[in-house]
Amino acid sequence: MATKDTTPVHELRPTTQELRIPERFIPTPTIEPGHNFATITDHISTIVLRRKTPFGWFFGLLISLGLVGLLTFTISFLIGKGVGIFGINHPVGWGMDIINFVWWIGIGHAGTLISAILLLLRQQWRTSINRFAEAMTLFAVASAGLYPALHTGRPWYDWWMFPYPNTMGLWPQFRSPLMWDVFAVSTYATVSALFWYVGLIPDLATLRDRATKLWVKRIYGAFALGWRGSAKHWYRYEYAYLLLAGLSTPLVLSVHTIVSFDFAVAQLPGWHATFFPPYFVAGAVFAGFAMVLTLAIPARKFFKLEDFITTKHLENMGKVMLATGLIVAYAYAMEWFYGLYSGNVFEIYMLKNRALGPYKHMYAALWICNGLAPQLMWFKKCRTSPFWLFITAMFVNVGMWLERFVIIPASLHRDFLVSSWGMYHGTKWDWSMFIGSIGLFFALLFLFVRFLPMISIFEMRTLVPEAHVHAHAEGEEH
Amino acid sequence: MAQIFHRSANTLSRVTIFGAVFIAGFVLWVIGGIVRSPYFTNQGIQREQIVPFSHQHHVAGLGIDCRYCHQSVEVSSFAGIPPTSTCMNCHAQIWTNASMLEPVRASFKSGKPLVWSRVHRLPDFVHFKHDIHINKGIGCASCHGRVDRMNLMYQASPLTMSWCINCHRAPEKQIRPRSEVFNMGYVAKNQEADGPRLVKEYGVKSLTSCSTCHY
Lengths: 478, 215
Known about the structure:
The complex is a heterodimer. Chain A is mainly α. Helices cover about 65% and strands about 0% of the residues of chain A. Chain A contains 18 helices and no strands. Chain A is globular, with a radius of gyration of 24 Å. Chain A starts with about 35 loop residues before the first helix and ends with a helix. Mean pLDDT of chain A is about 90; it is low at about 1-5, about 5-15 and about 470-478. Chain B is mainly α. At the A-B interface, helix 7 of A face helix 1 and helix 9 of B.
């Protein structure tokens, strides 16, 4: 096997500019031309194995780890002091903990959607972004998981959330959506991790074979579980992967549906609405694709992966963002219809309070970020420009956080009894926890891009012409 | 290509992967066992006391009623630990020189109560009331066991929440006639018929809401 240190492949490939074909006639490919099996393997695996770790990576990791330190400090303080350090109190019992939880878990949805649903729909463009998106999902779920675990105030009793035969003679309340949440999120984390790992096995074997140091070989080898790439292995692998894709497909819909039940089942104006499940699922996919774009655009630039994550990928993600963004905006509009059509004084007041109450700026910003900004994606120029995509994605990231803020504290703070109205503000601990969880997410991501192939090597190989030679040879009588 | 692992790695990996499931199961099983064991519940552990008071001798041997010492059991949440003067009602006359009873006499002289070491200890977040249980036909022995057979006092029941709530869910299985509450050796003749009848007669409800016992 060729293991030479080559100059980055994208600098060697033939350019299309010399052909002088008007650009609009050239279809955007899912992989730039000029690649073969070897160049793909080289290009992706050198990031992990050969290339010198760039300074920027250390810099980024250091900052992220610093934020993880902040998170650890916050959690220690939280465990010492209790949830009183957060801004929650009567009447707002759910604050930034739940906002951040829903925000993170929503972000996680892109990974499963890309890896499972797009796999089943045979969308080729998923191939170069699925690994990355799955990793992002896992890390987002890890960040999300912190919040429900810690917001209980006594995290050392968190295992009480699981049903097991205990000396209290009690089972958890199976009729509560919060209980379903425990199952939904833990199932989601397990299946996502499994899906990600199974997809990594052939690539781990590639890294094992291409590593030069024995201990590196051993580490990758241990995780490759003895993969030799025999026909039997591939047969079983494809089956397992397909089964896992089938398993995770319903999860894309179920997890955020159940998260939405946390609200929809409660009888609070602003929460108690039947459109919540589809609204939340669309919002999750919306947020997830925004986050994939937020990460993929700098990453492809930094690691020179423009050949693999092409404009086509970015454009498609932009389209998904537009579609889901429109669903979300529709839901915002429907909220008004439901409220007004109900004729219920509390529902109508909730809407008035949203638009004109103390959190009106948040609500206006929400419409700008999630309603207005994605409209840029109607224009091909914006859809194909990494700059505008990045800007839109950032708007959506912020907008989706605002959405949860508007849903949670802005609905809770003024309910049925005027005497119990109040205000909610996150304390510095709320914010340090949030910023810390972003740090955790990025720290994991930095480690991932350094130690694992961020693009699926073997799946990329299936995209190049070499992979189709056999089929052509049969059909065309060579 | 050279092998990077010894052949034994195959077996090792299989054992690890399949073993992990059993090891995890085993660990959980052990933990489940420990929290139900006397190590956690203190069930059946005799406590050393300042005076080795024998319930067996006083209850079974002499036939003293529970309420002679635990006076407030029918009217208060607390059954009552007798003051030294209760002991001295008899021990001023008998065993007046026994060295075993020296702390009792000392306590009586000085007026400083005897410090017993507590056997039945419920957590602070639980409120238990003796009177309601006694008045609704739950026998002393139902929870405390055959005290008349205990040399030194020990906790006969595990006192776990599941133990409490099992009876709260089905009081008809433990209830007895009020007249038999202090009878240590009561054996129900036909609990299946008497149980539901007494539950109805005494107006016993199956109280399992959290705030029945917790604040």
